[in-house]
Design a protein that fits this description.
Structural class: alpha+beta
Number of helices: 21
Strand content: 15-25%
Largest sheet: 7 strands, mixed
CATH architecture of the largest domain: 3-Layer(bba) Sandwich
CATH class of the largest domain: Alpha Beta
Radius of gyration: 26 Å
Shape: globular
Number of domains: 4
């Protein structure tokens, strides 16, 4: 049997689900191949979405018309806005989700998306003709042909799990690995390497003494990820809990180091430095007497808990006995141990900005196969791969986001220009223009772009337009309105800031660090009426307006800097350019530029090993 599609997506993880939804919503006849249709967008590690920089990515996915934010809102059991004590560029939404409900909701979303078909099977081969992908073969003997193929296999490619000296083949606990695809791609010149990640044990909440732990509830006024005006939360909200390791725990864990595949050379893949296993922590931070651990509920009703901070590949008995030396876990039982997993990934420097392979035409890569980690990074790549694959089918221009436009732009640019030497995770520090890339304005930045290509619908676009008008109305009110001492001094005194002696522009009052826009709403009737008019989006509108006013100078400076750097993106470099002709370039620059063939000077400037002086040489030669 043989069937034909516009797009085939291999793998139904976070990248695959977003890719299939995006391609289908742009009109592509799309097939999603997955090994298990009960595990769409499975949360293989912790049951949470968002966090520092990751929350911004999820809001960007939503602003573009992706589904991750909507699914998270519908299945969240706790919401928190992180970093409220810091500047608005650092605010990051995070939610605990019901693991089972999250996957079920994703399936419901996809089954209700026109143009998406499904096939439960294992992809074993990619048909490649004249270095162009043309189709997929499965273990059941099906041949599917497609104009474009998107590979989103996560940790399944030759996946190998480690618990002490025990090894199990698999893509995650309980699931078989994907064997064959890596070999096909490697034989066709796609650079293939190995990485490692890990996950902690899952605990039986019935055996945890929560009375001695620190409770960590969610926000009293939960936020949401999607810019659509649905209400949250839908499910019952649950707290997380905090406990700590201690010296006894550390001493017991160290008894298993000689059996650790991480230390005895069994594991060859490179692991994530920012999210180390507990055994890594004991070595790297040997001076520490304790480490934070977070107990996170796996769902609204379940007693299963995820112990964040205790990822391990140590032998089962070492993990189990060490857990029982932790406060509150003295009698704990576990559902399964932690493990490390090794898997194949492909060098992302051999990708175009569209995430299409430079080696094999019509083949796109997204998610952990590109060396990233995290649901959010995967979802973002899947969305962009799905968009660009279908736009290419339609013969339309590619959809590329710049570093000053989205964290998604930073993510993809980092991957293709810098590559990875460890699992890539997004941080706010990776973005040069993070004051422009805030979580509150993702729709202002991206929804119009998505609307133009046909991904964001009219309803979403109209909501964004209305919000933009609301924000501008608030800003104009503050600029045009003056207040008298009698109107405002009681608020100023209560906030321990100097009272007025004469009539003053309201904008100058808001500029005071002690004053929030929400302090002024109850007192100033016109402002209160605006707030009431905005309805469900009132808080979001007021927050965005306040940020735009308070940080106007800083925002404008970042925009100016972005404009200067953006000019380099317009200086094109011919694909056949011979860098060895330029004797003024450093040897390393010639090697790196010849290898990765950047399309613009801006892209060349971000390749590791290319110095500012090398960039100047290119600009001079290209007449700039």
């Amino acid at each position: 049997m043989e069937e034909f599609y516009d797009i085939i997506v291999i793998g139904a993880g976070h990248a695959g689900c977003e890719a299939a939804a995006a391609a289908a919503n742009l009109g592509g006849k799309t097939l999603l191949i997955t090994m298990d249709m009960t595990k769409f967008a499975q949360m293989s590690c912790n049951p949470a979405v968002g966090g520092i920089a990751k929350g911004q990515i999820v809001r960007e996915i939503d602003a573009l018309g992706g589904y991750m934010g909507i699914v998270t809102d519908r299945t969240a059991i706790q919401f928190r806005m992180l970093n409220r004590s810091k500047g608005p560029a650092m605010w990051s939404p995070r939610a605990q989700s019901d693991r089972m409900a999250f996957s079920a909701e994703w399936r419901k979303m996809l089954e209700n998306t026109p143009n998406v078909s499904f096939w439960q099977d294992t992809a074993t081969d990619i048909f490649i003709e004249n270095m162009t992908s043309t189709g997929v073969k499965t273990a059941m003997g099906m041949n599917f042909r497609a104009k474009k193929i998107i590979l989103t296999a996560g940790t399944f490619l030759n996946g190998l799990m480690h618990v002490g000296s025990n090894k199990l083949q698999g893509g995650r606990a309980g699931d078989a690995p994907s064997v064959g695809l890596s070999d096909v791609l490697k034989q066709n010149g796609v650079p293939t390497l190995r990485m490692k990640t890990g996950t902690p044990a899952r605990l039986d909440g019935r055996t945890i003494d929560f009375s001695v732990l620190e409770e960590q509830p969610g926000d009293t006024e939960p936020v949401k990820f999607s810019f659509l005006p649905h209400k949250t939360p839908v499910l019952g909200q649950r707290s997380c809990f905090i406990t700590y390791t201690n010296l006894d725990v550390h001493a017991h864990l160290k008894t298993g180091f000689e059996f650790s595949p991480l230390f005895n050379g069994t594991i060859k893949g490179v692991g994530p430095r920012y999210c180390p296993s507990i055994e890594d922590k004991l070595v790297t931070f040997s001076e520490r007497d304790s480490h934070h651990l977070f107990l996170e509920p796996e769902g609204e009703d379940t007693e299963e808990y995820y112990i964040n901070g205790f990822s391990s590949s140590l032998p089962l008995d070492v993990q189990y006995n060490a857990l029982r030396k932790i406060k509150g876990l003295e009698n704990v039982k576990i559902f399964r141990p932690g493990y490390a997993i090794e898997y194949d990934y492909f060098d992302p420097q051999f990708l175009h900005k569209t995430l299409e392979s430079k080696v094999i035409s019509n083949l796109y890569f997204a998610g952990q196969v590109n060396g990233t980690t995290g649901y959010e990074e995967a979802g973002a790549q899947g969305l962009m791969a799905g968009i660009n694959a279908q736009l290419s089918v339609l013969g339309k221009e590619s959809f590329i986001l710049g570093r000053d436009e989205a964290y998604i732009g930073v993510l993809i640019d980092d991957l293709i220009t810098k590559g990875v030497d460890e699992p890539y995770r997004m941080f706010t520090s990776r973005a040069e223009f993070r004051l422009l890339l805030r979580q509150d304005n993702a729709d202002m930045r991206l929804t119009e772009k998505a609307y133009r290509i046909g991904l964001a619908n009219q309803y979403r676009y109209d909501l964004m337009t209305q919000k933009r008008i609301f924000i501008q109305n608030v800003i104009e009110y503050f600029r045009a309105t003056s207040v008298t001492p009698d109107e405002i001094n009681s608020i100023l005194i209560s906030k321990e800031t100097n009272p007025l002696r004469q009539k003053t522009k309201l904008l100058l009052i808001l500029m005071r660090p002690q004053i929030s826009i929400f302090d002024l709403i109850p007192t100033l009737q016109p402002l209160n009426e605006m707030f009431e008019t905005f309805g469900a989006s009132g808080v979001e509108v007021m927050e965005s307006a306040e940020i735009e006013m308070k940080y106007e100078g800083y925002i404008q400076r970042e925009k100016d800097n972005a404009d200067k750097l953006h000019r380099l993106e317009y200086v094109k470099i011919p694909e056949t350019f011979d860098y060895s002709r330029l004797q003024s370039l450093s040897t390393e620059a010639v090697q790196k530029l010849s290898k990765f063939k950047p399309t613009t000077v801006g892209e060349a400037s971000r390749i590791s090993g290319v110095s500012p002086s090398d960039v100047n040489v290119l600009l001079v030669f290209l007449g700039r």
